[in-house]
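$ ./design --mode recover --in tokens.txt
reading tokens...
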């Protein structure tokens, strides 16, 4: 039963994280490119980050708990031996890619970005959203034993 509760929390956090980025990509990014103004993106970031960042942290915590439930402890990270280990390890790599993209955007992209370069923001949004959807798909494969 503990695993089921952790899974539900994980899925709710994934709903917020993936759903938020899909909305950002499909609704706000096109407006930004069309208007050449980052106002829409900045407003979205201001409203999403207070729930998005805690959701991402919950995904990490619940993901590690569930990995241990599937006997993928830290000593098996990046071993890629079993099907489930492959999924857990790929999700960890994608998580670190997400963190790297977020750090790069926050420290280098947004502070220096001019409205005329909004396509660069779209690329970052597309990458983070693609990673989020890929992680969701990988997580769904756990139920069938991996790949």
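writing sequence...
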């Amino acid at each position: 039963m503990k695993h089921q509760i952790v899974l539900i929390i994980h899925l709710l956090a994934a709903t917020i994280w993936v759903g938020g980025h899909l909305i950002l990509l499909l609704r706000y990014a096109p407006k930004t490119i069309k208007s050449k103004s980052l106002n829409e993106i900045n407003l979205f970031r201001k409203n999403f980050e207070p729930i998005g960042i805690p959701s991402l942290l919950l995904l990490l915590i619940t993901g590690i708990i569930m990995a241990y439930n599937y006997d993928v402890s830290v000593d098996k990270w990046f071993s890629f031996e079993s099907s489930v280990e492959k999924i857990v390890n790929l999700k960890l790599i994608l998580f670190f890619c997400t963190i790297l993209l977020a750090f790069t955007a926050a420290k280098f992209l947004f502070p220096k970005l001019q409205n005329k370069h909004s396509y660069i923001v779209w690329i970052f949004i597309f990458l983070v959203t693609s990673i989020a959807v890929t992680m969701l798909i990988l997580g769904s494969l756990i139920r069938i034993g991996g790949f």
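exit 0
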